[in-house]
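A student in our group prepared the protein record below, which I am reviewing. Thanks in advance; the entry in question is below.
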Amino acid sequence: MKRTLIIIIIVAAFLSGCKKMLNQEPKDTTYEEKFWKSENDMKKALAGAYASLRSNMLDQDYFHNLGDMTLGDQFIIIRSGPYFSNSDWNIQVGKFEMNYLDVFRNWSRFYSTILQTNLILEKLPLVPDDTFADDPEKGRKNIAGQTLFIRSYVYFQLLRTFGDVPLVLTPDPDPIANKPLARTDKNIVVQQILNDLDSAANCLDMTYEVEANRGTVPNKAAVMALQSQVYLWRACVIKKPVFEATPDMADVAKASALVESIIGSGLYGLPAPGGKVDSIQYAKVFTGNTRESIFELYTRYAYNEGSNNLMPMKFLRIPVLAKTDWSPLLLGNSFVNNLYPRIIQTGPNPEDTLPNTDIRRSLFLYDADGSQPILTKYSNIIYNNPNQQAEPYLDNNVSLIRYADVLLNRMEIAVYKGELGQAYSQLRSFRRSRNQPQMDSALYVSESPLTYNSLMDEIMTERSRELFMEGQLYFDDVRMKRSVVPWLTPARYNQEGFLMPLDPALFNNNRLLVQNKYWAGKI
């Protein structure tokens, strides 16, 4: 589906301290009478919801800052320069109470997306059948399924970031007279997300009507992938919010069934002759629309949606990025040395070494053996002024859910279920598919003994190797409880210190809000 920047917002959809869900009157009070009258109107409104989601996830690098910058300087080194302020260092060390972090602490703008989806779901049943190009029932289900997926994704992001959040499921008929809103218990929010995803799954097909839409338009598999993540989050974090706790197995079983259905569909996974993914095909994953993609944000230059300032671009410099001999971000030395070393120790003896032939080492890193390798995962550059090689833009879709994530979740689930041998076998198969040299024995120190913790550590390491700069690793660490984030100690975790504080602006004129407990008295 070709994206458009049209955002159909009948009412201004921004929270102001949760006192007024909507703080502006409609610009044209007759507009609603003219809109919501046809399938085409609904598709424009849906395009607006996608555009709103994309804008909110990428605003000030929200997606990558919370998902990756939090990992610390062992992953990312922030260089002094005009592009970064103290706020970036504060994110990296977990000081979310400091100034200039409003965009990360304030949930208001996400409700613009939520209210857009609420409007679509309210108006969709009223659209006349004769305005649909094909079967009206199928057309309505397709739009409803996509809309429910978007709303669910936004609420899941809010849930993981803040815990309890206001649950708003209908457009407000009188936005000016809106009352202050309290936070809704996270257990209610997560159940609503799961209910919405059940409904979305019943609306969507597993296959794509248009192959070019692969990944950028959610299908039933995307719904199941998101739902499996929600079940795992509830199992590991909501029901067991203590660092030492193991997950709730009823939810783990539900996540497992969804993951197996996706894998069993045969619709995903890059061609892998001999069990090894072709590096040329793998390189296309981060441009977008491949069999690896389950859901991604459409951010292509051809439709004026390319980015010139996303965080992955800030690693680039000459020769990857023309006329740029300095980059504001560098890869941490331990990230390269630990995850992509030149030589891999494959056994217990000093002579048990092999060159690292992992295809990701050459695909994700330029000059991997140099003193300052460049992250090239997202580096499909188009110059707005090609003759001068000036005004560079990233022409990469931004991945939100990939098939690799599903496979790695499968290993994690196997560990939770006590199937340690199965998890180890799946991990070795995954590494083999990336052409990583294999350890000689399960008894070798880096992969043994086959215990819960040793396997979980290895799976988290593989997630770091595979999913870095895809906005997920912080939330993976919270769910898996691996202490990869240096400042997220068990003591802080047990006080729900993995959640963001609420921005002080949200408390203006709203007596119903309370601060997250770790941050009470700190902000």
The mean pLDDT is 88. Residues 136-162 form the longest helix (27 residues). The chain has 18 helices and ten strands.
